[in-house]
Structures are given as structure tokens and as C-alpha cells.
Specification:
Length: about 550
């Protein structure tokens, strides 16, 4: 079998093109069509024909390209990755078509300034179209060295090889919009309807961070004047600017306003941001323009498996419903015949919890719950709840309602109306969660997406230091200022690794390779290629008895 595969690869490598054309050139395709096809080969492992790319790994193991895509190791930017101690080198044209030297990465102009006795011999010479085709098919580099056998050897004819190589030459070839010789331009978004206190709690940490970073610029500018690596140091540090995009009017008009802001001054990425309403219009703007949007403050992120450019703290209120479904599914003694009653407040929050629960509950193969939707603006009446309990006798009640639901819980203290469990949302109850009646606290489980209050002090002390004395930056149950502090920490960590590679996709690639981060509010923020929601679950908690209750964890981290 191995011999047959190698023979097939040799035949593919032997395919030739007319002498008057460059290898793999297809003049029937426009440049745009060629790049789109190349991008699909690189990211999805799908050939222009629509068939999956074929390859072998470990010498003789056949695999399909959809399972061993280029992007899975070299990432979307093409600038490589580091995972489990395995270094995957860049595969972009402007890296491959230059000699590779050991040590500090320098631009071509900077390397010329290095004294001869400091110059290193290249690890390998620059690739050409022909040697790049050989390494992709056979795993042999221009020095004749064989690459690691986990690198797939792809079956590509000359036409498809040319399309892929053309795409690699375009990949991360030009710095992204919003990057100037001296500055990285960022923006943050505030919509009409956001309260003044919340607005300032979001803006002030970002503005403080930008000012502090720019305050270091003189240090870097001084360092850049000395030594043979002056150009490298100058290019490795840029100042930041932060514009505030104020969006007025209804959400339907936001897109046009953002387009105008972006036309006047393109930005590298959006940081934070806060909206009165759903984030969807801003999410779609970011996706369409391929602009990273990092950790906006929203309870209503777009729930999607296909988005790439917006990184959310979590899946918001929707996530609490998902976590309840997974926790409830583990409940001992809950049979298919037991009724799960879902009482939904007709609000954006109630519908988000309902959607999250029902999606996860269905995926778990469970029977559809009995659902009662309250009229808009109404809460749960005590007598209505009692009659409902007597009629349906549910084993479990899900209260997707706000503070108005708390008084009705008193009716569930009666033995005839007492279910086995009640589930509540901390995001809807807010401070009213502390007033859950004592007689039902032993059966009331609260979805809680944050670190417990008694465990939070050690993680928030640095944020508290930054925010102390600023009345406009309160640390409260909205957690706006502390979450923006987390954004600044994330940016600091990211800039340590980005070097001179100011490409939007690489910006997100670097974030995806970070280890779990322990910031305020969330138990942990976890990253990975293509992961758009950093906090991936909730605790189920209960209240202790007494007038000054504490939250007690009744589950491990329930992952959605």
C-alpha cells in the first residue's frame, strides 16, 4: 500500500504545465476566484472541484484534507502556531519566499545593518514555486531535508497547486487596516440608551490602559536609537489610539453609522463596547469587514457556530439555560414521565433562557418541557402558580422570570405544591436572588455564571487597585468595569506575542493560543482556534439559611 501511494504522489509531482505559463497558472480564473478557491483549500481542505483534498501522513496513512486542513496547524493568518511543544512554522508567501535564519526575526533591511561577524547562515534558502510544490507534495524542503511525518503530503495537481500557492502568497501579505507606521487604531462602541454610569464604567478602564501604554512609548523610542536592532525594536512597538463610536437611534440604523465611522478612520479592532439591546448588528458588521471585536459587554451575544471575528466573554443569558439543561439531565430519579414545567417571562431575557434550555435539552434527547409564557409585562401570580402546580404536578419548575417571581415562590412551600427542584436565573433575579424564601432554598438551584462572591476578592484586587477612587468606575453586579479590566489584561498578554505581525487574523490567532486566564468575574477564560465564547459554563448554587445567606456551590462547573 505504501509503495502504491508513493507512486501516485510521484505521478502527481510529474504533472507539467506549458512552458509559456508559470506552474499551476489558470488564466481562465479571475484573481478573486483564484483566491477564494485557494482559501477554501487552505481553510476547509476542499478542492475547486468540490471534492475533499487527499493526503497521507506518517508515511503511508491516507487521510482527507477536511480532517487535516492547513488552517488547523498554521492557523488562519498562516503565521504558525505553538501547541504541546510542537512549533508549526509560517506558511505565508512573505515568510516562505525569504531565507530562514535562526535567532531574532529581522526585516531584510535590518539584517543588512547587522555586522558580518554577527550574521548567521540561513537554516534554509528561500522557497520558489517549484520547491514549495515539492514540500507540499513530498515533505522535502529546499535543503533536501524531510519534514516531520505528521505534516500531510497532499495530492495536488498543477492547477490546484498553483491556486493554493497563489493564495499563500496573498495570506498576511499586507498589514491590516488601522495600522500606521506609529499607531494601532482601535475603537469601542456605545449605543444610545446606555446609562451614563455604565457608559463610563466601560470607557474609563480602556482609556486608562491606552494612556498608560502610550506613556511607555518614550522608553521604546529611546531604546530604538541604539544598536544594530534599532529597526526591529521600532517596529515591534506601536502606540494605540481609541476612538468612541457613538451609535444613535434604533438598531436598524447602526450599520450605516458604523460604516461611516469606518470609512473616515479604519480601525484594527473593536475593544469592549456596550449596547442597549442585542449585539447582533455590531456582530454582523465585524464579520462582514473581518474586524476583530474583543469582549463586548452584552447579555445577548450572537449564538452561532460559524462566527469568527467577535470574541465574547460567554454565551450570555442563553448559556444559563444551557447549563440548567445539563445539570437537570444528571438528576437522579427524573424519568421521562416526570413533567418539567417552564414558566417564561415574555422578555428578551426570558426568551434567551428558554432558547438555551430547549436547545440543550433537545440535544440531550429529552422530552419537550411544558411551557407557560406569561403575558408581556406580567409576572407570576401566587394563585396562578398554585393552580398550575395542582393541575400539572411537575417534578421540576424552571422560572425564567425576574424579581417578580420571588414572592410567588412562597406558594411552593405547601407540601401539595412542592416540586423536587426549582431552577432560577441569577442574571434575571439580580440582587433579588438573596430574597428567595427560606423554606424553598433547599430545592431552589440558581444558575450562576461567575466566580462565587466569597472567592472573588483575590482575583479582583488588581482591578480594584486600578478602579479605586474613580466614582465613575464602580465594581457592582453589572461587572462592567472589572470585565473591561480583563480586556486590558488580555491586550497586554496578546501584545507580548504579536511582535511585528499586525494582521487581524494573527491577532485572533495569538489570543486563541493563550493558556486559560484567571481574571475577575469568571472562573476562567479558555481560548482555542475558532472558539468564540471564553467562559463556557455556570455553577449551580443554593442559598444558605438565615437572614444573611451565602451562595453555596452545588455543582462543579457545568459546561454547556
Amino acid at each position: 500500500m505504501k509503495a502504491g501511494i508513493l507512486c501516485l504522489m510521484l505521478l502527481l509531482c510529474a504533472v507539467t504545465t506549458p512552458a509559456e505559463e508559470k506552474p499551476g497558472t489558470d488564466r481562465t480564473l479571475s484573481q478573486r476566484e483564484s483566491l477564494q478557491m485557494g482559501e477554501r483549500i487552505y481553510r476547509e481542505g476542499i478542492l475547486p472541484s468540490g471534492e475533499p483534498l487527499q493526503a497521507i501522513v506518517k508515511g503511508d496513512i491516507p487521510v482527507i484534507g477536511t480532517a487535516f486542513t492547513c488552517v488547523s496547524c498554521h492557523l488562519r493568518s498562516g503565521l504558525g502556531s505553538l501547541e504541546g511543544g510542537v512549533i508549526t512554522p509560517p506558511t505565508t508567501g512573505n515568510k516562505l519566499y525569504q531565507p530562514l535564519y535562526p535567532g531574532t526575526e529581522l526585516s531584510h533591511a535590518a539584517r543588512k545593518k547587522v555586522p558580518t561577524y554577527f550574521q548567521s547562515i540561513a537554516h534554509r534558502p528561500a522557497y520558489t514555486d517549484e520547491t514549495l510544490a515539492v514540500v507540499l507534495r513530498m515533505g522535502i524542503d529546499p535543503e533536501g531535508q524531510e519534514l516531520n511525518s505528521v505534516m500531510p503530503r497532499y495530492f495536488l495537481d498543477d492547477r490546484d497547486m498553483g491556486i493554493l500557492i497563489s493564495y499563500l502568497k496573498s495570506l498576511s501579505a499586507e498589514l491590516s487596516p488601522g495600522v500606521t507606521d506609529t499607531t494601532l487604531r482601535f475603537a469601542t462602541i456605545v449605543t444610545e440608551g446606555v446609562g451614563a454610569e455604565d457608559r463610563e464604567a466601560m470607557l474609563a478602564p480602556l482609556q486608562t490602559y491606552v494612556a498608560a501604554r502610550n506613556g511607555m512609548s518614550k522608553v521604546y523610542e529611546t531604546r530604538a536609537k541604539y544598536g544594530v536592532f534599532a529597526e526591529e525594536m521600532d517596529l515591534s512597538y506601536k502606540r494605540m489610539s481609541l476612538s468612541v463610536w457613538e451609535l444613535k437611534g434604533s438598531a436598524e440604523t447602526w450599520r450605516g453609522q458604523m460604516e461611516e465611522y469606518y470609512r473616515k478612520e479604519p480601525v484594527f479592532a473593536l475593544l469592549g463596547g456596550i449596547a442597549a439591546g442585542e449585539w447582533k448588528p455590531i456582530h454582523e458588521f465585524s464579520e462582514d469587514h473581518r474586524i476583530p471585536c474583543i469582549f463586548p459587554i452584552t447579555d445577548f451575544p450572537v449564538i452561532s457556530e460559524t462566527g469568527w471575528y467577535t470574541l465574547y466573554f460567554s454565551r450570555g443569558i442563553y448559556q444559563e439555560g444551557e447549563a440548567v439543561a445539563h445539570h437537570l439531565a444528571r438528576m437522579a430519579g427524573l424519568s421521562a414521565e416526570n413533567t418539567v414545567l417552564q414558566i417564561v417571562q415574555n422578555s428578551r431575557e426570558g426568551r434567551a433562557l428558554q432558547a438555551g434550555f430547549e436547545s440543550a435539552w433537545q440535544d440531550l434527547g429529552r422530552r419537550e418541557p411544558l411551557t407557560i409564557t406569561l403575558p408581556e409585562g406580567e409576572s407570576v401570580a401566587k394563585d396562578f402558580l398554585l393552580r398550575l402546580m395542582e393541575k400539572s404536578k411537575p417534578a421540576v419548575i424552571l422560572f425564567w422570570a425576574d424579581t417578580g417571581a420571588v414572592p410567588a415562590l412562597e406558594k411552593l412551600t405547601q407540601p401539595a405544591a412542592r416540586p423536587q427542584r426549582i431552577y432560577l436565573s441569577s442574571s434575571l433575579l439580580k440582587q433579588s436572588l438573596w430574597t428567595v424564601p427560606e423554606p424553598v432554598r433547599d430545592i431552589a438551584f440558581i444558575a450562576y455564571p461567575y466566580r462565587l462572591p466569597q472567592e472573588e476578592a483575590i482575583y479582583s484586587k488588581y482591578a480594584s487597585g486600578l478602579l479605586r477612587g474613580k466614582k465613575s468606575m464602580p465594581i457592582n453586579d453589572r461587572r462592567i468595569s472589572t470585565r473591561m479590566y480583563s480586556v486590558t489584561r488580555l491586550m497586554t498578554e496578546t501584545f507580548l506575542h504579536i511582535q511585528r505581525n499586525y494582521y487581524r487574523d494573527y491577532f485572533l490567532d495569538v489570543i486563541s493560543m493563550l493558556t486559560d486566564q484567571l481574571y475577575p468575574d469568571y472562573v476562567r477564560l479558555s481560548f482555542g482556534p475558532g472558539q468564540r465564547y471564553a467562559s463556557k459554563g455556570c455553577y449551580m448554587v443554593q442559598l444558605t439559611q438565615g437572614p444573611k445567606p451565602e451562595l453555596v456551590r452545588k455543582s462543579e462547573w457545568v459546561i454547556y
